[in-house]
Design a protein that fits this description.
The chain is α/β, with parallel strands linked by helices and 226 residues long. The protein has a single domain, classed as Vaccinia Virus protein VP39 (Rossmann fold, 3-Layer(aba) Sandwich). It has six helices and twelve strands. The strands form three sheets. The chain has a seven-stranded mixed beta sheet with strand order 5-4-3-9-10-12-11, sandwiched between helices. Strand 4 (75-79), helix 4 (85-94) and strand 5 form a beta-alpha-beta unit. Helix 2 packs parallel to helix 3. It is globular, with a radius of gyration of 16 Å. 38% of the residues are buried.
Length: 226
């Protein structure tokens, strides 16, 4: 990975190539705001026995935070943007968390024929998504498509952490495994209408997951098995 700018957030060392930085991303990192609410939720809920599946790795910050609690071998993280994979692996290594499993691809509620899907990269890596209409300047690529249920079953995840830029509206139709006890979900209400938001809550409720106020804040919402 080419040398970039270095940051430290809550003891986690992060490096990002200058080509991947935007002013907003740099400000969030410099001010310590980057993924702060998600990190707080992980610290509030994770126990040493948990196994974590993360959707949307970004720079690997939350994967490191999770691995500090549960151990790197108990963390699997999935990132669709291939340009971020070497960044993630370098940041994991810099924090002695090489045992985290890193997958390059997008996650869908159900597998698709051919095992691939289209993904759209944006100048700000944290805004990339499955939706072509999100940004007319987005660059289309083909990525591996993983099924959510299959990943949860294969990893034996007890905790799901997901920031999928609006794709959450398509999640949770398929049955979730009994091993899953907690979901930490970033909502994106600016990307869909209130009814779509209601349906997310309804589908989770139908599978036995209720709203958990502990560490839920703003668009970061925790759901626990009840």
């Amino acid at each position: 990975m080419s040398r970039g700018l270095s940051f430290k957030l809550q003891g986690v060392a992060l490096e990002i190539p200058k080509a991947l930085l935007t002013p907003k991303i740099e400000a969030a990192l410099s001010e310590g705001r980057y993924e702060g609410q998600e990190a707080a939720a992980l610290k509030a809920h994770l126990v040493a026995e948990d196994r974590v599946l993360e959707l949307g790795t970004g720079l690997g910050y939350l994967a490191v935070q999770a691995a500090r609690i549960v151990g790197p071998e108990a963390v699997t993280t999935v990132e669709p943007n291939p340009e971020l994979i070497p960044v993630i692996k370098a940041n994991l290594e810099a924090n002695q968390m090489q045992g985290v499993t890193v997958l390059n691809g997008a996650v869908l509620d159900s597998p698709v024929p051919g095992g691939t899907c289209q993904f759209f990269l944006t100048p700000a890596f944290w805004a990339a998504s499955l939706d072509a209409a999100e940004n007319p300047k987005a660059r289309e690529i083909t990525v591996t498509a993983y099924g959510l249920g299959s990943l949860l079953a294969e990893t034996l995840a007890t905790v799901l952490l997901a920031d999928v830029e609006g794709a959450e509206t398509e999640f949770f139709h398929a049955p979730l495994p009994d091993t899953l006890r907690l979901i930490i979900l970033e909502l994106h209400p600016n990307k869909y209408d209130p009814d779509a938001l209601r349906q997310i809550f309804d589908r989770l409720s139908g599978q036995g997951f209720g709203y958990c106020p502990k560490a839920s804040r703003g668009q970061i919402v925790c759901f626990q098995k009840v």
